[in-house]
Specification:
By secondary structure, this protein is an alpha/beta fold. It is built from 13 helices and 15 strands.
Length: about 400
């Protein structure tokens, strides 16, 4: 335990800048008695002047190792390109510095396992991951309902999340973006990690995956920007995950169907809960032909069969991210349970890897697939690009 978290931000871009701004503006939602920002690091020389302007007197580092060795920080958050998450995280944990890692935990499971093993070898340090959607009261409510059996046993879970429209200019802004060697993939590793995490957090891990993808649909890129995946949760329960970055109007709809009802989430704001008064199988088995005819004619009284309730949720900008930071600090200082333990970060990475591997092989693959085979095929794509070194 420490008296206070002395936080360093590595990467002063959009995300790092947003987190830093919570401290700059002295946002009252930040638990300042538990955490303070004490240093910023970025390898872009231009950021030094920006930090000096935004935070006069704030220690600035252009090398993250110098930050870790400075003695100024006892915790860091990493807002850097995906392939740097694991190396920086390991370097921090080995020095006894607490880690709040940005999503995804890494690009492929073999490297994330190394990060998790390092955390286990240094139990005095905290490893958390920035899954801010787990703080969303809507998804907390859905998880609560599923754990309480409000809609019975899972039968089907479908998430249609296509609200990630990205024009070509987005991909042109950096030579590492939308590459196998620089970013590690497309929509699955960049835009959709939160949903890949939530799907498993709420519904459980699938056993098998079959996916079809389009690479560079309407864009001059080589990675996936359109994904259609089928999930097998076992015991007859199935699911699907559909996402893309080329749908200008986009849809966000999660539907979870169970033996006793259904949960529908629309636009990550509104939840509709339908609960059957008896299990569906019992209603089916005991329905007389007279009632079947009423069903066909639209004369059946739905109120006798199920109830429907709707809940809407709103959050102020920054609530989710600040809650993650506060929880991270509270865990370090007070021992509060983590909302998103770092070891759980591998789940979404494994699912994304399984989807890639399924499409590359043209067959269904196990969720717990061969991680060596995945890395081998990823490296083949990195070699074809010819821009970056292969990974180990």
């Amino acid at each position: 335990m420490v008296e206070k978290v002395k936080l360093g931000i590595i990467g002063y871009g959009a995300e790092g800048g947003m987190y830093a701004n919570f401290f700059k503006t002295k946002d009252e939602r930040v638990k300042s008695d538990l955490v303070e920002l004490v240093a910023i690091c970025d390898n872009d020389p231009a950021k030094k002047d920006k930090v000096a302007e935004d935070f006069p007197g704030m220690p600035f580092f252009d090398n993250y190792l110098d930050l870790l060795e400075s003695g100024l920080v006892n915790a860091i958050v990493t807002t850097v390109p995906h392939y740097e998450h694991v190396g920086m995280g390991i370097d921090a944990l080995e020095r006894g510095i607490h880690l709040l890692g940005e999503k995804p935990a890494g690009v492929y499971t073999k490297e994330v396992l190394r990060l998790i093993e390092t955390a286990e070898q240094n139990p005095e340090t905290t490893f958390a991951i920035f899954f801010n959607q787990r703080t969303n009261p809507l998804y907390r409510r859905v998880k609560e309902l599923m754990e309480a059996g409000a809609i019975g046993e899972l039968q089907r879970a479908t998430w249609f999340i296509t609200t990630w429209w990205r024009p070509q200019g987005y991909y042109n802004q950096s030579n590492w973006r939308a590459t196998w060697g620089g970013e590690g993939g497309g929509v699955l590793v960049n835009q959709a990690p939160h949903q890949l995490d939530l799907l498993q957090w709420i519904c459980g891990k699938p056993e098998k995956v079959f996916a079809k993808m389009t690479y560079g649909a309407g864009r001059d890129i080589v990675v996936e920007n359109e994904v259609n995946a089928l999930l097998d949760f076992g015991n007859g329960a199935t699911g699907s995950f559909i996402t893309c970055t080329n749908d200008l109007t986009g849809t966000d709809r999660l539907e979870i169907f169970g033996t006793k009802g259904k949960i529908i989430v629309e636009d990550s704001k509104k939840m509709t809960l339908t609960q059957l008064k008896k299990p569906e199988a019992e209603l089916s088995e005991n329905m007389a032909m007279e009632d079947v005819m009423k069903l066909f004619m639209g004369q059946l009284d739905a109120d006798e069969m199920y109830t429907v309730t709707t809940e809407e949720f709103t959050q102020a900008f920054g609530d989710q991210h600040i809650e993650v930071i506060n929880n991270f600090a509270s865990h370090i200082v007070k021992g509060t349970d983590l909302l998103a333990p770092g070891a759980e970060g591998i789940n979404g990475v494994r699912l994304a890897n399984a989807m890639h591997l399924s499409d590359w092989l043209g067959q269904e693959v196990a969720y717990d697939h061969d991680s060596d085979q995945y890395l081998e095929l990823l490296n083949e794509r990195i070699k074809e690009e010819g821009k970056f070194d292969t990974k180990a």
